[in-house]
């Protein structure tokens, strides 16, 4: 799994497997701590990445969402929902980051 991860996260996972495994275990525990579905968790993670203005995380969660069968229209709606709390410029930026990962 770590060899296929792009960028710095993949590098960290290969260089520090104990740290990566602990991080992955924490993520798994958090995911299992409540009633949200896989789909809901992925969309929430995308929204949090947008809120944090993390282009890399938005790319990652967008790619993962598509690989899990979440439609582009749902991803776009998450970006649009950011307009109210984050403002139009940040929401538009997020929408472009989501579109960056669309298969052309």
Q: How would you describe this protein?
A:
With 104 residues, the protein is an all-alpha fold. It folds into 2 domains: 7-34, no CATH class; 37-104. Helices cover 75% and strands 0% of the residues. Helix 3 packs antiparallel against helix 4 (55-67), helix 3 packs across helix 5 and helix 4 (55-67) packs across helix 7 (88-100). The protein starts with 6 loop residues before the first helix and ends with a helix. One of its GO terms (molecular function) is peroxiredoxin activity. Residues 17-99 form the Carboxymuconolactone decarboxylase-like domain.
Can you lay out the helices and strands and say which pair or pack?
Layout: H1 7-15, H2 17-31, H3 38-51, H4 55-67, H5 72-81, H6 83-86, H7 88-100
Helix pairs in contact: 1-2, 3-4, 3-5, 4-7, 5-7
Major sheet size, sense and barrel closure: none
The DSSP helix count reads 7
Overall 3D shape: globular
Low-pLDDT stretches: none
What is the chain-wise order of helices and strands?
Answer: HHHHHHH
Q: Cα-atom Rg, whole angstroms?
A: 14 Å
The average pLDDT is 93
Domain module tally: 2
Total beta strand runs: 0
Q: State the end-to-end CA separation.
A: 25 Å
The percentage of residues in β strands lies in under 5%
Which structural class is indicated by helix and strand composition? Answer: mainly alpha
Helix content: over 70%
Give the oligomeric state: single chain
Pfam families: CMD (PF02627)
Organism: Actibacterium lipolyticum
GO molecular function: peroxiredoxin activity
Protein name: Carboxymuconolactone decarboxylase family protein
């Amino acid at each position: 799994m770590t060899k296929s991860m792009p960028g710095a996260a993949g590098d960290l996972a290969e260089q520090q497997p104990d740290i990566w495994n602990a991080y992955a275990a924490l993520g798994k525990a958090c995911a299992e701590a409540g009633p949200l579905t896989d789909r809901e968790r992925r969309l929430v993670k995308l929204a949090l990445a947008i809120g944090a203005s993390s282009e890399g995380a938005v790319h990652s969660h967008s790619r993962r969402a598509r690989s899990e069968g979440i439609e582009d229209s749902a991803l776009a709606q998450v970006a649009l929902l950011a307009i109210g709390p984050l403002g139009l410029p940040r929401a538009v930026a997020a929408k472009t980051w989501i579109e960056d990962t669309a298969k052309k």
